[in-house]
Amino acid sequence: MGHGTGAASASLLALSPRAEGLFQKVLLMSGSALQPGVVRNTQVNATWNMNDRFGCRAFNSSELLDCARKRSKEEIFQYKRLHYDDYEEFVPIIDGVGGVLPEPPEQLTLHRRKTPIVIGTTKDESSLRILLLNEKELNFSSITWEHGEKLAENLTMSYKQFQNHRLISQGCKSEYVWTQVDPSFPESVLFNSLLKMYSHFWYDAPASQLATYYLKHDLPVYLYSFDHISENFYDIDRAFHGVDKLHIFNVTPRFLNKRKDMNWQLDQRVVEIFSELVANFALYGTPTHENDGFSFNWTTTTAKELSYLSITDSPSMQVGYRWQGHVFWNWYARSLDAVDVGNIQRIAQLDRDVGNWQFATAMLSFCSLFFFAILVGLACYCTRKESDEDEL
Questions:
Q1: What is the pLDDT of residues 185-200, one digit of tens each?
Q2: Contacts with 115 (C-beta within 8 Å, 6 or more apart), sequence order
């Protein structure tokens, strides 16, 4: 069981051949092995960036390690990247045969032994960022079309697993930016669409994709969406990243001001329901069973419907788990990435060449006809001149 990066770690270990037989069930909350940037092929660039940042002047890993050991923990924790994108630098790497991750996670999902799984996300995962920035003081009107395009580009152009970055970037802009800037729309529409873009890319689409891979092995897969919005979070009206963990463990983070006088019974009800669902899955392999007294039945999902449990104080089964994000990132973006841009460019060049050849052929034909007409004219002139001389 894990949450966020912990869920990604648990998911990776559950697929690793080095952990064969150690996992009987897996519960992943807001994280998975397929999240973008969870693993890298190598850490060479990150290592040498740290070397430059610390001014170590090391020529190999051993010298860099010795240099890092001489730095205080404050210096290490204050390390900032020189060039920031949306992806972490220091993450697990694919370490080859015999390693913890001998292959990329997506390859491991195709043939590794798997176990029953519960996986899900909150309704508004990416809203945690704006919560930390104090959403109520943000100016929605300050987010323009151009800002949205830059955010989409930064998200897609720097993702190393994509091949056709430009195509996917344009598709992302069309899906989450250009269709959301209708002048008749409220100012918050583009803002909310960009939040969806991040939630779908980082959390929702990887979760639904991992679920479909597990389903191919005829294993029980239970999808959920944590949709409960507590009235005790003051003016926060979003189910942000981590809110499911807050309820299941009944804790309050430092950044969150929480009260206890606004329908606290609903929050307690959600805590009890979610805790029992998790306990049932751990004990029996199914979140709900005949004797639990629930008025709902959490059934396994299917690849076609992506049915899921909407967790509130009165949970219910729904279909189409984050369908927009699932279709765009798991279907459409992958189709764009599979396009052979090199062949398209070559075909376009050949088309231009054919056009040039056709133009040259037409000009040659015109010139041939022109010179033929001149020759005919000269022949007629010469014949007429000879006739006039004979008459004289």
A1: 988 899 999 999 999 9
A2: 14, 23, 24, 25, 26, 219
Distance CA 326, CA 304 (A): 11
Which amino acid appears at position 168 of this protein?
I
CB atoms within 10 A of CB 179: 13
Which two tokens mark 5? Answer: 């990066």
Read off the pLDDT of residues 298-349 as tens digits, 9 standing for 90 and up.
999 999 999 999 999 999 999 999 999 999 999 999 999 988 776 655 555 5
Taking the C-alpha atoms of residue 391 and residue 218, their distance in angstroms, rounded to an integer, is 106
First to last CA, the chain: 117
CATH 3.40.50.1820 applies to domain 2-40+91-138+204-325: yes
Locate 295 and state its tokens: 């008025």
Length in residues, the chain: 392
| Rg of the chain (C-alpha set) | 31
Distance CA 392, CA 387 (A): 9
Do residues 247 and 29 lie in contact, with contact meaning Cβ atoms separated by under 8 Å? no
Q: What is the pTM of this model?
A: 0.80
